[in-house]
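Quick one:
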Amino acid sequence: MRNLFVLLLFHCTLFSLGQEVQKHYHSDLNTLKNEFYLMDSIQKNRFSTAYLAKAKLENTTVKIANGYYLLSELNIHKKAALQYSDSIIQLTKNTQNKNYPALGYIQKGIHYYYNGQNELALENFLQANQLAVKNENRIQLVIVKHYVGLLKSVNNKIEEALSIFKENYQYLKENQLDTTYKKQYFKSLFALANGYAKNKLFDQAIQYYNKGLKESKNNPDFYYPYFLTGHGVCSFEKGAYQQSIDSLQKGCKLLKEDPSNLAAMYLYIYDAYKGMGTPDQGIHYLNSIDSVYKQDNSIRRYSRIAYGHLNDYYKHSKNKKKQLTYLTKLVEVDSLIKAKDGNLYVDIVKNYDTPELLKAKQELINSLEEQNSSKQYNIFILIALCTIFSGLFIFFSRRSYVLNKRFDLLMEEQNNKETQVTPPVITASKVESLGLSEELVTQILTKLEKFESSLKFVKKKYTLNTLAKELNTNSSYLSKVINLEKNSNFSNYLNNLKIDYAIQRLNQDPKFRKYTIKAISEECGFSSQQTFSTAFFKKTKLKPSFFIKKITNSEPED
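Output:
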């Protein structure tokens, strides 16, 4: 019973399909194409196969050619398209028909174009052009011109290409063929928008992309994804990176059957993320190009650019193993491009010239081998470095302890000075050694004490003579008293007074600590920052910066 049901369902399907074929069997080629484009891929396959079978059964040459044409459209990016196109040419080469065999050459040219074999594509388009002129087939001339324009664009003759696209679009609109030849109309509209974009006329490009989005919205098979991605590319070129990413991602979801355009859009998404300063987010899309390339090497020109970016990315991030992986792929795809495409992609390959790539690859291999062979040496170096760092840690820890101890002693000494005032003790032996009277020595010391408390030494430059004159004494007597009682010559005596003043003020005045070293030195009467720092270290065995930092950190918080 179950088998009977299946058989009945099969015959019903054949009957339904036969009715659909019969309905359009006698339609003209353009009507047949328009109906065919509205079907999904499964319906197209069944319909074209049934159509060809019926045509062969009736042995009608033009109808058989129509069947081959439908199958070539179904497989346009696949090798089978060439076989069906050749079948069209072979079948109709002696036929007097407006569409054939020119359409066979057009289909071959389209296949070669989308597979990156542009020289063969041009050869077939020129053959189709001769036949279209002979048969006065205007729509075929539009189609041929369209693809010649695309080939010119590939070879950077973008102004010539734009001129062709304008002519085609205007012809279709002026002759009201945009509905009759709907698919070609959308192709021409897209090519025109894209032509403006390639010529950096982005406002005009966006105008036509928007027109295409509006008109093709209800016909997603008629270039809607391409208008979407084209709009995304223009947004990228205008610096609207997030808007570009949004449009491109939506478009890519609809381009799964078009590896070439899909790869190109992945590159734009990567560049958009890079433009936003987040290239890491775009690496996924470069790897996606690699995945597409493994399935379809016709996208080699895009994979080459992707491998270049990946090579640079991993070189910058110092991941030599991954860099070598993509550098190897770069060399391989470079060889494939040169073998299959001749001079068509000179502008692309010149950025990564093969000899330079091979040299870089070998250098990277050598580097990795050196890394492997030097592991033991690196371990030895690591141990040595650990020993050195341990020694440095001990040294600096010890040094830090000594400096902190000096600071504590200095602050203790400073506090003692503030709480204890010790009058000078003049012994008979000291006076006798000076060769001066006790009264004179006492007078000089008393005057020095007043001088020190007046803080004049920070505001005025003193010499031994100028101070002796100010104290109304003899410079020789003054020098002897300072040497004996202050245990210093006159220059060091003055510097010590200034340093004591600096320490006292830094200890008592938080605002003063915020001054620069240079400003502090000037406030304390020094002629330069270097002289102050030298005198400070000579007296305290500490650098001014360390002292200020310690005293600031030791200050209790409010």
